[in-house]
Write a structure and sequence with these properties.
Elements lengths: L8 E4 L5 H12 L3 E6 L2 H13 L3 E6 L5 H13 L5 E4 L14 H29 L2 E6 L12 H20 L5 E8 L5 H14 L5 H12 L10 H12 L10 E4 L9
Parallel strand pairs: 1-2, 1-4, 2-3, 4-5, 5-6, 6-7
Helix pairs in contact: 1-2, 1-8, 3-4, 4-5
Bound molecules: NADP nicotinamide-adenine-dinucleotide phosphate.
Length: 266
């Protein structure tokens, strides 16, 4: 795909690992200048360095988006070298909790890290897009927003908030040239997910090799029509599409990339 991103500048939050690193790498490969954000300076700089080594344009911006000061630092660093045309709100975490053990503080923290973090970046970056009459705002949501289970209730609720605010933002940006959408992944194989599933495997009898473990895990935890977990590059491909001019008539929508995990007319 030629996503037609040459000359655009993108900020990808939570790009020091996982989906964000894949998204930043893919945007840079399509010609965008990328601001790679993370909290961990070494991991963040490592992703930015790998993009530069491959011939792309990337700088690092470090900060905790669960705080106003961190968001100010990240926005300041990102905007120092030029405007941001594409904002991908991807930063987030999903510590394993259930209804039985998630405290009020866990719920509050999930909301700070997964929802208000993105709102902070919207507040700092979208006014410039609006002034220039072009922009793309993309939330990384998730299937648990639409089809939650009993586990991870706090996390699932924050995903639903991301989906919801993306639609509200699209309405707010009516006629401005700035679109707002959500990419909703299913279960995607990032390092943290692989570690979690590998840890469950012996107790559940899922086998010894990764292909066996993945097949059993997906059948039991997130069954879908493709029969495997998604890969970070498959989420990045959806972000590429929504980031470019080919998606100029797409706003307020959710693009599910989940192998058919989520059922129904969502
Ligand atoms: N993997 C999946 O199956 C899946 C499915 C649906 C949705 N998602 C969503 O995709 C996003 C990325 O997840 P991932 O699976 O790629 O996980 P990951 O590898 O753990 O990446 C999470 C990223 O978010 C950053 N981050 C976490 N808390 C932050 C904070 N307070 N301030 C700033 N940055 C923070 C991390 O930065 P540092 O490491 O530098 O601290 C890291 O770059 C998350 O929002 C998650 O909800 C993932």
């Amino acid at each position: 795909m030629n996503a037609q991103l040459t000359g655009r500048r993108a900020l990808v939050t939570g790009a020091s690992s996982g989906l964000g690193a894949a998204i930043a790498t893919a945007l840079a490969a399509e010609g965008a200048e990328v601001v790679v954000h993370g909290r961990d300076p070494a991991r963040t700089e490592s992703v930015a360095g790998a993009i530069r080594a491959a011939g792309g344009g990337a700088v690092a911006a470090v900060g905790d988006l669960a705080t106003d000061a961190g968001a100010d630092a990240v926005a300041g660093a990102a905007l120092a070298a030029g405007p941001i045309d594409i904002l991908v709100n991807n930063a987030g975490s999903y510590p394993h909790r259930s209804w039985r053990d998630a405290t009020a503080d866990d719920w509050r923290e999930a909301y700070e890290v997964n929802v208000i973090s993105g709102v902070r970046m919207i507040q700092r970056v979208v006014p410039g897009m609006r002034e220039r009459g072009w922009g793309r705002v993309i939330q990384i949501g998730g299937g648990l927003a639409l089809q939650p289970g009993a586990e991870l209730p706090h996390y699932s609720a924050t995903l639903a908030a991301r989906h919801n605010l993306a639609v509200s933002l699209a309405r707010e940006l009516k006629g401005t040239g700035v679109t707002s959408n959500t990419v909703s992944p299913g279960a995607i194989l990032v390092d943290g997910v692989r570690r979690f599933i590998t840890g469950l495997a012996p107790g559940r009898g899922w086998g010894e090799t990764w292909p066996e473990i993945e097949r059993h895990a997906i059948e039991e935890l997130a069954p879908n029509d493709v029969g495997r977990m998604g890969r970070p590059e498959e989420i990045a491909a959806a972000v590429l599409y929504l980031s470019g001019p080919l998606a100029g008539y797409v706003t307020g929508t959710t693009l599910r990339v989940d192998g058919g995990t989520v059922r129904g007319l969502h």
